[in-house]
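Obj.: predict assembly geometry.
Materials: sequence records (below).
Method: joint structure prediction, all chains together.
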Amino acid sequence: MTRLFAAVVAVLAAVAALIAVAPELLSPYLVNSAGQLAAFALLAVSLDLIWGYAGILSLGHGLYFAIGGYVVAMHLLKHGLAVTGRVPDFMQFMGWSEFPFYWAGFESFPYAAGLTVVLTLAMSGLFGFVSFRSRVGGVYFSIITQALVYVAMLLMFRNDTGFGGNNGMTGFSVIFGRDMADPFVSRMLAIGSIVILIAALLLCRRLVTSRVGRLVVACRDDEARLRSLGYGTLRLKLGIWCLSAVLAAVAGFLYVPQVGIINPRLLSPDVSLEIAVWVAIGGRGALSGAVIGAILVNGVKFWLSARAPELWPFILSGLVVLVVMAFPNGLLDLGRLRPRALKFLRPARGT
Amino acid sequence: MIAIDVAGLNVRFGAFRAITDLSLTIDYGEVHAIIGPNGAGKTTLLDVISGLTRPVSGRVTLDGARELTRLSDTAIARAGVRRKFQKPSVFMALSVGENLEIGGLGDASLIDETARLIGLADQLQRPAGTLSHGQKQWLEIGMVLAARPRVLMLDEPVAGLTDGETDLTAELIATLRGPDRAIVVVEHDMDFVERIADRVTVLHEGRTLFEGAMADARQDRQVIDVYLGR
Ligand SMILES: Nc1ncnc2c1ncn2[C@@H]1O[C@H](COP(=O)(O)OP(=O)(O)OP(=O)(O)O)[C@@H](O)[C@H]1O
Ligand SMILES: [Mg+2]
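Observations (raw structure tokens):
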């Protein structure tokens, strides 16, 4: 697995270098897609950390992704207003002349970045503490995460909450004082996303191969046993849960400026479910598997969206069935089982 | 000296009385066997001592000072009371060495010595999931040992082992015995119990039926009727 991990990191680094050095080889669409895929891959890594390694399936990671997304959108709108004087669409729509009080400070990038982390830690910390403390686990935990993201979606659909309502937020014009339509900005966003993905991969790899990482796996395999050996598992689970949530929020923070819009549909339960599908397809419990799954599934989705978007649900379901039936460990099984899996194709001998 | 003092213990699961008015002591320096027919409440007693099951009433005191029925399972383990479960449970995805490291609360210096004790010194890199049944049992004992517990509880340590492995386990327990350690063994293999135990308590339907030497238990009318004679 180590070799595959190194290969994945090398390919990511090569793509970032290519965008930096020879952008003329790539269309702006391709550069933008690469940046979005990096954000999705980071989201998948965050879910793999908690599902693959800690055995806790979140079906609501869209919540943390959306926290990062909404916060960065608010920053971009306020920053845009300060630089170009452009009033956000939803303010005009609501007939508001002033921002609600909680929009204060968002023109500052450090404030937005810091708030993303703090808000995510607060939400995931509170939810994780209550759930793990009362030993809620397994399917129950997954269902509650899904319910939570659904509640958040309903909340954000309301127009009077001051987050853009069902239209969401769009019309981002400037970032760090530069025109977002500038191809240079788009390249920087893509490169930044890939670099952050690589950094997160290295960090997670260090974590999962450390002593704490082994405890997380031990907790997944037999929590009662680990407790009986003198370990408090609450802290362990809470720590990895919050780290996973923060990585998901960072992914959302990177994604929204590149896609140019955020709306409550990001909080729809099926979006969160799909993240689990990427990880399952790529192979959970291996960081490289999560990256491969996210990029592969979304790559196909991007490609299809211009040609035959109506086919997408069938292809996605087909992939899920294939993985569940043939490759319980995802595509990583292909590498491991190749000789045996293909044996039935060879003619039988001696008959 | 008394390590664990169980007094007036009652455990219920709904209307079912798993343990009724049970009192017993476990002393430092002894190997104390707990025997009895299936469903007698042996595992339940260990569950109460290790904090997994809460009694309806009664007290479990460690070293005459600490009341265990109010502590969490983690805290009890940290106080030096460790157990091996009836169903072998090692961390399959981790190696032998990593399992022992976790058992020793991260103290790497104890890994080699413990591995030698359980006969797995040359298998430290091996994934625990690939061990034989007997080796898994020993590894689990090793994980419990790695933290040098004062009270060691073994729930059916020789279940499913070959005769040779059972002999080795008896030798292992003999070397673990010490003036600063109390050892509790739950087992159905009576010859094994006779070899290792200083004292046996026979449980039946959640009550104490007999307490004393194994040789005397074998002569006891009631014990023969409910358990040994079957
Ligand atoms: N969590 C539980 N809920 C309900 N009943 C239980 C529970 N745990 C144990 N029991 C019941 O309590 C009784 C005692 O069980 P226990 O596991 O202590 O028996 P044991 O003496 O260890 O038997 P064995 O030799 O088969 O391991 C059994 O009748 C069992 O079915
Ligand atoms: Mg039992």
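Conclusions so far: The first strand of chain A starts at residue 169 and ends at 170.
To do: check interface contacts against the pulldown list.
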